[in-house]
Amino acid sequence: MELSALVAVSLIIGALIILVAVAVNKQKSKQTEEEEQSDKAAAKSSLKASTVKKQKAQQRPRKEKPQQHTFSHPLLASSLKSHSGAVTCVDFSSNGKYLASCADDRTVRIWSTKDFLLRDHKCLRGNVEYDHATLVRFSPDSRAFITWLANGETIRIFKMTKKDDSTLSFKAAPEDFPRKHKGVVISMAIADTGKFIMTASVDTSIIIWDLKGEVLASITTNQMTISHAAVSPCGRFVAACGFTPDVKVWEVCFTKTGEFKEVNRAFDLKGHSAGVYCCDFSNNSCRMVTVSKDGTWKLWDTDVEYKKQQDPYLLRTVPCRVSEGSRIALSPDGRAVAVSSGRDLYMYNASSGELEEEFHDVHSEHITDLRFDINNRFLVSSGDRAIRVFHNVSGYRAAISDMQVLLKKSTNSGVKQRLQQQITEAESALNAIIGTQSS
Questions:
Q1: pLDDT tens digit string along 270-308?
Q2: Do 196 and 144 form a contact (C-beta atoms < 8 A)?
Q3: Whole-angstrom Cα distance, residue 169 to residue 162?
Q4: Distance CA 406, CA 413 (A)
Q5: Run of H or E including 289
């Protein structure tokens, strides 16, 4: 009897334990299910929030690219706009066929001058790997160009070759020039003789290189700072201007067999009363122009026997608007002068000094470079992403005036006939540009 009661109690206790275990399992299962449902709901809510956020992001207005600065003028021949960065330098080839431009978009562009008057302006692109060029100059044979690298602080040469389809391709030389300058280089040029390259730094140093990257000479200008330096088209002279009111000119001398000899001080251009911003040569190297902080530009006769202590002649002083970094350019034939002041551009008759054309707000930033083409037809300027190409009407007018003077003086019928034909052609070209009758 007692045994039976004990068994019964054991069975009841076992049943209770089983019931409790089942109840606990059910509760755990229910909690797990609720947690899973809660996690799914949270994930769904998170996904929905992410989707809404993404949709809102997609609906945000895109940042628009900066608008190109617009400029128009009756004498504007064209605007070249392929660069995506600020154009810092331009240069015409000696054969007159090409214009090179460099910008901080890591490219150099080569433009065909025969396309300047067309609606579309195609260009060929050369990439400057891992750097960008601040200066560009064509070689004398127009088959290569050199660049000054902003980060590399050195010269890189690119060779130009024609492909089967007559387009050009560009190949960088295997090695860049060694780094020698300690300051920022602001000017670079190649002598038309092909004998040397010049680079000038704000730290007042000028280096004369051969075309293989060897340093031939180093010049210290003692001007505190240099604002500009140039090589004469004859390949003999290097001129530098800066903080002082004098422009200093040196002769780079070579032997008869073409070996480098020495650099000698040639002459100074003295006459400005303040620092000189820029200088330029005519194509025959017999004329120079300078623009100064004193608010004038000057025309000089540099065809002198400096070895006999003959100084250059000051031909003309003309008041003009200037600003920090003003540029000046003299047309190859010496008949026209262009001066920049900030974003504005002024064109003068070199012989009379008369201001003939004014162009305001040509670029969105200060003008960085000015250059006439070798045929005296165009003047180009840079200052933002666009390159402006202007008709050189001042040059046309001056050429007509000069030929009319020669016509009156001439007694040879053949010469008179040729001059009259040239005058007629120049007047027709001028009339086509400005649409008025030339006097």
A1: 999 999 999 999 999 999 999 999 999 999 999 999 888
A2: no
A3: 6
A4: 12
A5: strand 287-292
